[in-house]
Amino acid sequence: MSSFSDFQNILPDPNNTIGSAGQSVGGGTGPGFASVKLSSENKVAKSQTNSGRLIARAIAYHSWKVNISYNPLTRTEFEPVYSFLLHRRGSINPFFVSLPQYRLPQNSTFATYINTHEFLEAQATGVAGATQVTLNRGNYTGGSNGYPSPGDLFNINSSLSSNHKKAYMVTRVETDSTYTGSAPASGSARIHFTPGLQKAITSGDDFVFKNPLIKVVARDTQEYSLNTNNLYSFSLNLEEVQ
Questions:
Q1: Dihedral sign, CA of 158, 196, 216, 39?
Q2: What is the pLDDT of residues 147-171, one digit of tens each?
Q3: b/e for 182-200, b at 16 or more Cβ within 10 A?
């Protein structure tokens, strides 16, 4: 008997297809997106004193929100996506979404390296809440293999927690030639990112830059419209969960 995890768990698209049995391997369909909107939500409590001084603090978790719109779809294109979402039963069962603009890093040299090797490794431990980590790998040399860029998305495969599924975005990159304060070791990359680490990490944990995924749930109500040309109009509002 198949378990839920045996089925395709990434929203169907041209790179993550799905078959009639729900399988990912050998799947044949998955329409592309017409547009994607990504929002970063930081919940903050703030107030100002009579002198104008700002007092602010984070009061809740960070989350990504994803809005996806499709071009008008034929039924063959539409049904794999719609049935995938119905199978998830609204927000009961989370799934993953792969955003095409983040499938590979922006730097072409680094993207070539990552397309084969997929990840870099943390050089040291990191506590929950940390917003910077130095990365390297035995076969990686930043000068010749390129570096991550601000705006790249990544996930973390951590040996400390198998459910560390948060998506992070690079905000700054320091190298041995471009840095603030102390320089990272030659060939390494010290990345700054948002949000802070959701969970602690340890040395050797994988920072995955190839096809990073966002774990999401859809709304509990899914609807579409059908026009006189038998084309389906459909869009999605997704929210990151952990």
A1: negative
A2: 999 999 999 999 999 999 999 999 9
A3: eebeebbbbbebebbbbbb
Please provide the DSSP assignment of 85-147 as one string: HHHTTTTTS-EEE--GGGSS-SSHHHHHHHHHH-EEEESS-B-TT--EEEEE-TT--HHHH--
Phi, psi at 227, each rounded to 5°: -95, 180
Distance CA 38, CA 29 (A): 24
pLDDT category at 1 given cuts 50, 70, 90 is very low
Domain covering 104-208 assigned CATH 2.40.30 in the classification: yes
Task: Compute and round to an integer the Cα radius of gyration of the chain.
Answer: 20
Fold type of domain 4-98+214-240:
Phosphorylase Kinase; domain 1 (3.30.200)
Neighbours of 1 (CB within 10 A): 3
In the chain, DSSP finds a helix count (H) and a strand count (E) of 3, 13
Do 104-208 and 4-98+214-240 have the same topology in CATH? no
Element (H, E) at 214: strand 214-218
Contact assessment for residue 237 and residue 65, using Cβ atoms and an 8 Å cutoff? yes
Tokens representing 156 are 């973390």
Domain chopping of the chain, boundaries: 4-98+214-240, 104-208
